[in-house]
Design brief:
heterotrimer, A alpha/beta (about 550), B alpha+beta (about 210), C alpha/beta (about 425), A: about 550 residues, alpha/beta, Flavocytochrome C3, Chain A, domain 1, FAD/NAD(P)-binding domain, 2 domains, seven-stranded mixed sheet, six-stranded mixed sheet, 15 helices, 22 strands, globular, C: about 425 residues, Rossmann fold, Ubiquitin-like (UB roll), de novo design (two linked rop proteins), 3 domains, 17 helices, about 10% strand
């Protein structure tokens, strides 16, 4: 780790103060990203060799997974029970629940399979809020432009346009599910500004927006006719004779057995890849964020995009170690908190887009202006005491979760700054979809973080909670309405044979199995509790 | 800061473990090489998955905590609680025709809420320090907005459910209180105006 | 073969609420004798007789009497005669209360003399209609009797005799919970200290004794210490009502000398196993269910001897199970009983017993894994002592005892899944 100023020295030199000079703007975003953003680390990218994206640039670790062998064989499915449904939703986060709730409302039979429990997802951890243009001075067009600019003009414009138009109705739908938002004394939605945006557009509930959303959606799912399969990781999709998606192979951590689910439509809502810890970064992501959906969809032939673009959230907690990677909401910066280097100087406009701010932090640390704890951690200050001085009481009123984190880290945030460093936060790219969430594989819908295009190369705060509900509802409705016309077809895992052929012909190793399901350090594959789910022919 | 070097000995799920003092109990379990998949979640204290029972050295007391937030300590004894705890209460918000009926419906849906014996077990169990028992009492009196506010930090870990001898499911009571408050009372004029403008087609996005 | 029903369940005692019949058989002589002695002498007799707490604790009875007698305050004092009896396999107090109410009242009266008590509450399980009716009837007769007058004169104040139905919660049998109940509240066990002798009902000195314990007292007074000690076998004193149930030919309550071997209880008095059945284990009942195995058939059934076998005599309930009975299933039932009856004050108890019961039923139904079993063992080490009363420890003891004696059954139950 690069040398910086020691934690105790930097803390001794730090004094809370109300106003500080803005940072000097000495570098273009492009140059900053190229020099310091983790996506530009030399040698971290490779070209995919097989599949719909053969020849495309992809992060090396992700490429290994996309070009991995399946976890099962025909033999593993001997005696497996077969269930039938109209719509199978895979993933129990915000997107999956929104899709399932909408599909069931449209009259479809719906099954929801989730790797752990319903609600175990990144949704529950989202703090900042949801973007929706509801204020007078704001328009969907402005929201659209901000999204395009934030994504470095690399955005799938029709998708982004659809999402911003859906914004206000998404908020209404959530309120109708029983979700609360912070409102002013007249009952109007309060808004705050996200980094890289032109208007205050983020609606929120304290810094618990995702928690509030998820517990409400989970309760709604629990009280519906949706059949929930929990502790049930999906290990493979099923294909029919035309190569269309026709269901999935679901494993059960409870019974250690496989179930085949035949479905007229499958909605993949498996979330992101944070727990792959790309480039060795800590992550703000849920334990289950292991990129399973990307692998499942890619094997069935779905086209992906932007596999070289990941979001590193600027403010991950850097210290203490047991909480490293924990997210500190961007809301704190949008409320006015500064970022300071070891010398107490601001070094970036804190409300620039996330990739810019993250790269700026990495630059400070790499150039020796960071704060070091042992050899393990380095970071910069998040100046909460300064914010509290300018706006007394704001921490308590608006950021209760952050204060609780401070207590866990034994830091009084009104007195002492916290040490932060970028944390792997979001997969910008993913499965290519249309405005109904349809992938390039018939019968397969994808929604939420597993998809790409909407956010281009960089996502704005508040656009992910919006996206999951907007596209979750769209896919749920479309899948349900079109399920009626489709009969159940023959199901198989024949596409795995194609995969193995392609791997062999490309001279790729077959020693890794995918999807990953759990981070390596959880040792799922050597856990004797799940022996029934481990493939015996592999040594 | 040499305290990260310090190592402590503890027992997790009956297994003796030595780990750096800077780790959470989940990290310590992984650090020691034991597999662990179930009852791991967000690792940030908001999903309620990693419930543990803890007895600290030289203490008779056993507390309920979240494993991802719990720092290891010398002589600590930890046991993971892995099951989900389904509640038997069901309702749909659309089944409540208007806000005058909420209280009556509440007592049909949660008949046990009136039976609270005030043992305080839910309060002691809550890893978030929520005044659970008071929340239930307020909800039973029909003061849903107030009751719901007490449950803002609830992560639905279900520890109050397993602690309740009257099977009240206090966390679901709290969530009901929050949901009816939003469903019947959040009517933001800025949102409604914008929806109306959109409905008329006055705002379009030019791609 | 040991003599059956010599004292408490002697046919002459089992006359119901018939006061005259009871007096004719010598009833009341114990109290008369006690009225001629000093409190110190009475407590000394109880001590020398070796009378133990027969509600399951086995704690020497005189110690509680002594602490109460030692209280300086001159005001009201309470005796709660504990007949809440509710645990599986125990059915002795209800017989004493229904069939020998005067014997119980006399014991309580002597205790009142020794400890200067003026409120006696007979605290009875509400499901025991016969016991309640018989006691109510008997108390009315007592209040009109010469014995009552003599008692009140001796204590120089009126003595309240009150029969009350408990709330029916199992936990109400715990002594501090009984106190709460007598105060008209939900039976939540209290933290100790203060002990009931210092601050019990309404903060007043209070003694809580089991029904069977008190029933012995008149006989000790009447027949003397040596006679009582001589009733027991070996070093044990007195008699014990054993409640035999399960897969035996003649289940029932047997009053036998304390220290009668288990073998004799089951095979001689109980008539042995039901036809074609082979003995597998004996669950001893009470606040701490533990297991005895066929290897323990020689154990003398007294508190100390049974404790030496890593078990506990408890209330004297012996639930006999035969080969073919699933130990895991039985233990699950017991733990469920505790889980359902945990009062809620200590989450370690309520949630702890809930989890143990869930883990047990998973294992019993063939869905358990190695880690479930590990978790069970881990909980059995983590939980003891974390509750304010004995309920949690009781649940853990039956689990622990079954893991110790029948660990292989647990292993077998998790095998199908592990071998899949």
């Amino acid at each position: 780790m690069t040398q910086g100023i020691s934690y105790s020295d930097a803390l001794a030199a730090y004094a809370p103060c109300e106003l500080r000079e803005p940072a000097v703007d000495d570098i273009t975003t492009e140059a900053l990203l190229r020099a310091f953003h983790p996506d530009h680390i030399a040698g971290s990218m490779t070209q995919l060799r097989i599949g719909a994206n053969a020849g495309d640039t992809c992060h090396t670790e992700l490429a290994q997974l996309l070009q991995s062998d399946g976890r099962i064989d025909e033999a593993d499915l001997a005696g497996a029970e077969t269930l039938e449904t109209d719509v199978l939703v895979i993933g129990g986060g915000g997107a999956g629940c929104a899709a399932a709730l909408t599909a069931v409302k449209c009259g479809a039979r719906v099954m929801l399979a989730t790797k752990l429990r319903v609600g175990d997802s990144n949704t529950v951890m989202a703090e900042g809020g949801i973007q929706a243009s509801v204020e007078k001075g704001d328009t969907p067009q402005m929201h659209f432009e901000d999204t395009i600019r934030g994504g470095h003009h690399h955005v799938d414009r029709p998708l982004a346009a659809q999402m911003v138009m859906d914004g206000p109705d998404v908020v209404r739908w959530l309120i109708q599910q029983g979700m609360q938002f912070d409102v002013d004394k007249y009952g109007d939605l309060l808004t705050r500004r996200a980094g890289g945006t032109s208007a205050a557009r983020v609606v929120y509930f304290r810094d618990y927006t995702g928690l509030e959303m998820m517990r409400v959606l989970r309760e709604a799912v629990r009280n519906s006719n949706i059949d929930v399969l929990d502790y049930s990781p999906t290990v493979e999709l099923l294909s029919n004779e035309h190569g269309h998606c026709a269901g999935a192979v679901i494993s059960s951590l409870k019974s250690c057995s496989y179930t085949l689910v035949k479905a007229k439509a499958v909605v993949l809502a498996t979330g992101g890849i944070g727990r792959m810890h790309l480039n060795g970064f800590p992550t703000s992501n849920h334990f289950g964020a292991t990129g399973d959906g990307l692998v499942l969809a890619y094997r069935l032939g779905a086209r992906l995009c932007d596999l070289d673009s990941f979001q590193y959230h600027p403010s991950g907690l850097a210290y203490p170690q047991h909480l490293a990677g924990t997210l500190i909401t961007e809301g704190v910066r949008s409320a006015g908190a500064y970022l300071l280097n070891a010398h107490g100087e601001r070094f970036v406009d804190e409300l620039m887009p996330r990739d810019h701010v993250a790269a700026a932090i990495i630059r400070e640390c790499r150039e020796g202006r960071g704060i070091c704890v042992n050899d393990d951690s380095v970071g910069v200050w998040l100046d909460t005491p300064g914010l509290e001085m300018r706006d007394p009481g704001i921490l308590q009123a608006r950021f209760p979760k952050l204060l609780q984190l401070g207590r866990k880290a034994q830091v009084d945030l009104a007195q002492k700054p916290m040490l932060i460093y970028p944390t792997l936060h979001y997969q910008n790219g993913g499965v290519v979809i249309d405005v109904h969430g349809r992938s390039t594989v018939p019968g397969l819908y994808c929604i939420g973080e597993v998809t790409g295009g909407i956010h281009g190369k960089n996502r704005l705060m508040g656009n992910s909670l919006l996206e999951i509900i907007s596209f979750g509802r769209r896919a749920g409705r479309h899948a349900a309405e079109h399920a009626h016309d489709r009969p159940h077809t023959k199901i198989s895992i024949e596409h795995l044979s194609d995969l193995r052929r392609a791997l062999t012909l490309a001279g790729l190793p077959m020693n890794q199995e995918g999807p990953l399901l759990f981070p390596k350090y959880a040792k799922f594959d050597s856990d004797s509790d799940y022996d029934g789910l481990h493939r015996s022919r592999k040594e | 800061m040499s305290e990260t070097e310090k190592r402590v000995n503890l027992t997790i799920n009956g297994k003796p473990i030595t780990a750096p003092a800077s780790l959470s109990v989940i990290q310590a379990l992984w650090h020691a090489g034991y597999p662990r998949v179930k009852s791991i979640g967000c690792l940030q204290g908001v999903c309620g998955s990693c419930r543990v029972m803890v007895r600290r050295a030289d203490s008779h007391e056993v507390t309920m905590e979240l494993g991802c937030q719990l720092l290891v300590a010398e002589g600590m004894h930890v046991s993971f609680l892995v099951f989900p705890n389904p509640t038997h209460h069901t309702y749909e918000l659309t089944g409540i025709s208007n806000s005058w009926e909420v209280q009556a419906r509440f007592h049909q849906i949660f008949p046990e809420a009136d039976h609270c014996r005030h043992c305080g077990g839910c309060d002691v169990s809550c890893p978030k320090g929520i005044e659970v028992e008071r929340g239930v009492e307020l909800a039973a009196k029909g003061r849903f907005s107030e009751a719901g506010d007490l449950f803002i930090e609830c992560v639905m870990c279900d520890l109050c459910m397993t602690a309740c001898p009257e099977n009240i499911s206090p966390n679901h009571v709290g969530l009901f209180a929050r949901r009816v408050t939003a469903y019947f009372h959040i009517r933001p004029s800025n949102l409604i105006n914008r929806l109306e403008t959109l409905r008329k087609g006055d705002l379009q996005v030019e791609i | 073969m040991s003599a059956l029903n010599q004292v408490l369940l002697h046919p002459q005692q089992r006359v119901g609420a018939d006061f005259a019949a009871w007096r004719a058989a010598g009833g009341g002589e114990g109290l008369r004798a006690a009225l001629g002695a000093t409190p110190a002498q009475l407590i000394e007799m109880i001590r020398d007789a070796g009378l133990r707490g027969l509600g399951g604790s086995g704690y020497p009875a005189y110690r509680k009497w002594e602490s109460l007698a030692a209280q300086r305050a001159s005001g009201d004092r309470y005796l709660i005669v504990n007949g809440n009896e509710d645990e599986p396999g125990t059915f002795k107090d209800r017989i004493l209360l229904a069939e020998t109410p005067h014997q119980v009242i006399e014991g309580a009266a002597i205790c009142a003399v020794a400890c200067d008590i003026n409120h006696i509450v007979f605290y009875i399980n509400p499901d025991q209609d016969a016991a309640l009716a018989s006691m109510r009837d008997a108390v009315v007769q007592w209040q009109d009797s010469d014995l009552y007058t003599a008692l009140a004169e001796h204590l120089r104040r009126p003595v309240e005799l009150r029969v009350m139905a408990s709330s029916g919660h199992y936990i109400g049998g715990e002594e501090t919970a009984a106190i709460e109940s007598v105060e008209g509240k939900f039976p939540f066990p209290r933290r100790k200290p203060p002990y009931p002798a210092e601050a019990g009902v309404h903060g007043l000195p209070t003694l809580v004794n089991n029904t069977e314990t008190l029933a012995n007292v008149p006989h000790i007074m009447r027949n003397g210490v040596a006679w009582y000690r001589g009733l027991g076998r070996g070093a044990a004193a007195g008699t014990k009502i054993y409640c035999l149930s399960g897969d035996v030919l003649r289940p029932g309550a047997y009053e036998l000398p304390m220290g009668t071997p288990l073998q004799e209880l089951i095979f001689e008095h109980g008539g042995g196993m039901l036809v074609g059945m082979k003995l597998k284990a004996i669950f001893t009942g009470g606040p701490s269910n533990t297991i005895l195995t066929p290897a323990d058939l020689d154990v003398p059934l007294d508190f100390d001897s049974v404790a030496e076998r890593r078990s506990a005599l408890g209330t004297g309930a012996m639930i006999v199970v035969s080969e073919g009975t699933g130990i895991v299933k039985r233990v699950t039932e017991y733990v469920n009983f505790f889980a359902d009856n945990s009062c809620g004050q200590c989450p370690a108890c309520k949630t702890g017993t809930y989890y143990i019961s869930r883990l047990l039923s998973r294992i019993d139904t063939g869905h358990g894994s190695r880690s479930d079993l590990d978790t069970l063992v881990s909980l059995s080490q983590l939980l003891p002592g974390a509750g304010r009363c004995h309920l949690l420890d009781g649940a853990v003891k039956v689990l622990d005892s079954s893991l110790y004696h029948f660990g292989s059954e647990y292993e077998k139950a998790i095998a199908p899944r592990n071998n899949r």
